[in-house]
From TrEMBL:
Residue ranges constituting the Luciferase-like domain according to the UniProt record: 1-295
UniProt name for this protein: LLM class flavin-dependent oxidoreductase
Domain of life: Bacteria
UniProt key word Amino-acid biosynthesis: no
Chain positions covered by the region annotation Disordered: 1-22
Gene Ontology annotations for the cellular component aspect, listed alphabetically: cytosol
The keyword Oxidoreductase is assigned to this record: yes
UniProtKB keywords: Monooxygenase, Oxidoreductase
Gene Ontology molecular function terms on file: monooxygenase activity; oxidoreductase activity, acting on paired donors, with incorporation or reduction of molecular oxygen
Length: 366
């Protein structure tokens, strides 16, 4: 099982000091987070993609390429790559290039995005969001698996005899997670291709996450990729930790209360009761995270959000230290102990290359 962190890259004033970080501050902070994640033994760093204030990560592959040069083991991923407003040809080329630079330590999470104005900025219509996600990924999937592509669809100019370059490293495309908060069509898409499904798992109650993951597992088996238990699932999560729970709640409350994404809504106590947010001790984070398995089954990747809402970098790095030193080692042991033998490991480039080498000649995937 893989553990890591993800960032949405928001530029938010610190409500305790009134200071707003610069865009440069936030970009550099995300790099520092990734480096610290590797230092403390986490597996994955993922960045969001946004094209509107108050967010900075408009070019995930640029950031991940920079981080690749400064790390050796860390898997570099996206928390969202906008499959709806990015050209699939550019996604194919950018992430294949990143694969080569990072020696295969790359995967990506595709999503529709939930910021309406972004669609017309890139010449698209949000009302076509699902259709764009389906068609664009069909092309991306083809571009990575066929050296010469002829293609025609609704949303971009046709391709004739086109080859995207560079080709995927070792002939194996990056592993794809399809991320969704609320769209069953995206769970269906992940199942159809036998790809991973990543549930955001931050804002919604566990019952919603359970329904989405169950749909994906059921349809994964329907399409012949394996049993429901062999489907590849990832979850988000959100934590804030201190040595005792009272200190954690007291320190985090002003950030929660003023956060753009959920501030001025339910109380911190209501939100922690109704969603996976954990504010407390490392032991409480371990206890709550282990319960995720009760309603989604055994899964392969757990990413935590630790840097939003104006939290200063010093505090964020302390959170990463606690994850790496106190939380993740226990979670690794407990999840491994409880996992049945038939549940697959988390995907890596090396594992995908081995699997491709054992496929019968002429075999194709969906």
């Amino acid at each position: 099982m893989q553990f890591g962190i993800f960032s949405v890259g928001d530029v938010t004033p610190d409500p305790t000091t009134g200071r707003t970080p610069t865009e440069r501050d936030r970009v550099k902070a995300m790099v520092a987070m990734a480096q610290r994640a590797e230092e403390v033994g986490l597996d994955v760093f993922a960045t969001g993609e946004h094209h509107n204030p108050p967010f900075v990560p408009s070019s995930p592959t640029t950031m991940l390429g920079w981080i690749a040069a400064r790390t050796e083991r860390l898997i570099l991923s996206t928390a969202t790559t906008l499959i709806t407003t990015n050209d699939p040809v550019k996604i194919a080329e950018d992430f294949a290039m990143l694969q080569h630079l990072a020696d295969g330590r790359v995967d990506l999470m595709l999503g529709r995005g939930n910021t309406g104005p972004v669609y017309p900025w890139f010449g698209q219509d949000i009302r076509e969001g699902i259709n764009l996600a389906i068609e664009n990924y069909a092309l991306l999937h083809k571009l990575w698996r066929e050296d010469v592509v002829d293609w025609e669809g609704r949303f971009r100019t046709p391709l004739q005899g086109f080859t995207s370059t560079p080709r995927p490293l070792d002939g194996v495309p990056p592993f794809v997670w399809h991320g969704s908060i609320r769209s069953p069509e995206i769970a269906e898409q992940a199942a159809f291709y036998g790809d991973g499904f990543f549930s955001n798992h931050i804002f919604w109650p566990k019952e919603h996450t359970q329904r989405m993951v169950e749909l994906y597992r059921r349809r994964f088996a329907h399409y012949g990729h394996g049993t429901p238990e062999q489907a590849v699932v990832g979850l988000g999560g959100q934590v804030f930790m201190r040595g005792n729970s009272q200190d954690a709640v007291r320190e985090f409350r002003p950030y929660f209360d003023n956060a753009p994404v959920y501030g001025h809504g339910p109380s911190l106590e209501e939100f922690t009761e109704q969603t996976p947010l954990t504010v407390g001790t490392p032991e409480q984070v371990i206890e709550k995270t282990l319960t995720f398995r009760d309603y989604v089954g055994d899964y392969q990747r757990q990413l935590f959000l630790v840097d939003h809402a104006g939290l200063p970098l010093k505090t964020v790095l302390e959170q990463i230290d606690m994850l790496g030193q106190e939380v993740v080692p226990v979670l690794r042991e407990e999840f491994a102990r409880r996992r049945p033998a038939e549940v697959p490991d988390a995907p890596t480039h090396e594992a995908l290359v081995r699997a491709a080498a054992t496929e019968p000649e002429g075999a194709t995937t969906a």
